[in-house]
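Onboarding guide, step 5: your first structure request.
Type a short instruction followed by the sequence, for example:

Predict the 3D structure of this protein.
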Amino acid sequence: MLKKINILFLLSIGFSGAKAQQTIPFRITKSNNIIVKTLVNKKDSLHLMFQIAMKDGAISPDKQRKADHIIFNKEEISDNNTVDIGNLSWKNISFMDNQLTGPEADGKIGTALFEGKTFKIDYDNNQFVIYNEKQPDLTGFQPISIMMDHDAFYISADNVVDGVRQQEAYFAIQSGYSGGILYSNDFTEENQLDKKLKVLGEKTLKNSKGESLITKQAVLPFFKLEHFVFKDLSIGFFAGDLKTQNVSYFGADMLRRFIWIFDSKRNIAYIKPSKYYSQPYYKI
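The system replies with structure tokens like these:
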């Protein structure tokens, strides 16, 4: 009888541990984007790029796979969709239509996957971890403050331009931007980046609306996030007449250099270096 009770006790611990956290596998593209395999509305198998700067989802006009069972209204919005990833399922997910996304993706999916939960982006093991009850092990992690605004996460960091330490520069974490740091138009003009930094070249990009933007690549002497310091960082800023970059980006090339844990209240994150921490900087 005692042996049977012990077996039942051990089994209950096992099931409890399984429910305490869940994992979602992903893969990383050559453009530093995270791709998740999903099944939408039980019928459309789509590869969606994880976009941390949005809550729900979007479908790309350049999708490679069919999305016939996502029905859009006149405003190009589709509500009340289901999304399945492995044995996990979400309801009431909205999708927007005709938004460009990263290479190899049929669209985007955001942080609705982790609504109200503490979650980890684990670049070492190519997976998200969702914590339901059990608290994550924070050994070796550095806490940083984050702010939420219109579903986007913001962090602050120090930038050195021409030997001057810039205080309280805020960056939106942008997993859809393949590069590292992309400065806002205001920061670029106020600090005369075009004159004070070594410019390596320029390239024309397109935003999610399909508008063409000219971005210049340059070298920033120092970038400091908490006690992590990056030297001779490859950064970008926009030039030309179309200047719509209202915020600075902390892009996917910087994001992948850490393992991230975001708390359920979205006011603090914990970071520690990942296996990509010292990799060469990505050049757009």
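Each response can be followed by summary notes, for example: The longest strand covers residues 212-225.
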